[in-house]
């Protein structure tokens, strides 16, 4: 495999972790078995991203739309989240990783909120990678929320521009992702970081999330590094 060029790393990588259900079904197992194995893939990606030197890693762990799933699946996902946070907070500390979240945490069960807030508090002074979990998150919710706050703050229309708008998003002070990865062969955005991915490179892989390895993560970075990012300019202008 080609080597990663450390002078051309994306600062921010976002991942839509898709395919847990199908992975379990392929094995004749229940969907939750897929989610459980999805947690191991989360660990792998967090480890390799930190190792490579990615500054921000955002994982789409639970969308606003996921609340429409069967109650049993939702509660299994929430339990997994709580146990993973409890178990891994020391790993985050050992690796100098700071945990934050985007999304409407108030919708989450109390115990999940409590554990997340504790983990965020404990890791808040870490200076290595920023791990951002998107939970009860959707891009449209975030944009609407930003607009509501802007109206409430009586922001002058003349003052409003890209930079100011960004300050009202959940990802305030986080650079836009240069690379968005989606697993499982689906080629959709599914309401993820709608504002922030305006110029992101999109990378789709057929691998189902529980099968997504450190090597697959590296492959995505190498693929990104082969691309020419023009931001609306011509090749000669870059
Ligand atoms: C998508 O697969 C996956 C999810 C909706 C949840 C992702 C959650 C985890 C990997 C576990 C908990 C997370 C953390 C951060 C510890 P799917 O269910 O949509 O699969 P399908 O499309 O094959 O049905």
Commentary on this structure:
- Helix content is 41%, strand content 14%.
- By secondary structure, the protein is α/β, with parallel strands linked by helices.
- It has a 6-stranded parallel sheet, sandwiched between helices.
- Helix 1 crosses helix 2 and helix 3 packs parallel to helix 4.
- Bound molecules: farnesyl diphosphate.
- The site of farnesyl diphosphate has 20 residues, from helix 1, helix 2, strand 2 and helix 3.
Question: Brief overview, please?
Answer:
Helices cover 41% and strands 14% of the residues. By secondary structure, it is α/β, with parallel strands linked by helices. 34% of the residues are buried.
Write the layout of secondary structure elements.
Blueprint: E1 12-16, H1 20-26, H2 31-52, E2 56-63, H3 71-94, E3 98-102, H4 110-123, E4 130-137, H5 139-152, H6 162-166, E5 179-182, E6 201-204, H7 214-225
Parallel strand pairs: 1-2, 1-5, 2-4, 3-4, 5-6
Q: Give the ligands present.
A: farnesyl diphosphate
Poorly predicted ranges (pLDDT <50, ≥5 residues)? none
**Mind telling me the C-alpha Rg?**
18 Å
Into which percent range does the helicity of residues fall? 40-55%
Major beta sheet, strand line-up: 3-4-2-1-5-6
Q: Report the span from N to C terminus.
A: 28 Å
């Amino acid at each position: 495999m080609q080597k990663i060029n450390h002078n051309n790393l994306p600062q921010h990588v976002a991942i839509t972790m898709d395919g847990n259900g199908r992975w379990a079904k392929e094995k004749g197992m229940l969907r939750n078995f897929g989610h459980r194995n999805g947690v191991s893939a989360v660990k792998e990606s967090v480890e390799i991203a930190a190792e490579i030197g990615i500054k921000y890693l955002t994982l789409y762990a639970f969308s606003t739309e996921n609340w429409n799933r069967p109650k049993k699946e939702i509660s299994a996902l929430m339990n997994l989240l709580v146990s993973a946070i409890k178990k891994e907070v020391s790993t985050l500390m050992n690796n100098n990783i700071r945990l934050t979240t985007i999304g409407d945490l108030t919708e989450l069960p109390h115990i999940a909120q409590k554990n997340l807030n504790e983990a965020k508090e404990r890791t808040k002074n870490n200076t290595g990678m920023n791990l951002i979990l998107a939970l009860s998150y959707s891009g449209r919710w975030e944009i609407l929320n930003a607009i509501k706050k802007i109206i409430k703050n009586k922001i002058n229309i003349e003052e409003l521009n890209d930079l100011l708008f960004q300050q009202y998003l959940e990802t305030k002070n986080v650079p836009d992702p240069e690379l968005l990865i989606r697993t499982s062969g689906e080629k959709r955005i599914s309401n993820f970081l709608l504002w922030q991915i305006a110029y992101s490179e999109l990378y789709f892989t057929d691998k189902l999330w529980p099968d997504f390895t450190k090597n697959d993560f590296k492959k995505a970075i190498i693929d990104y590094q082969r691309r020419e990012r023009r931001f609306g300019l011509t090749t000669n202008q870059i």
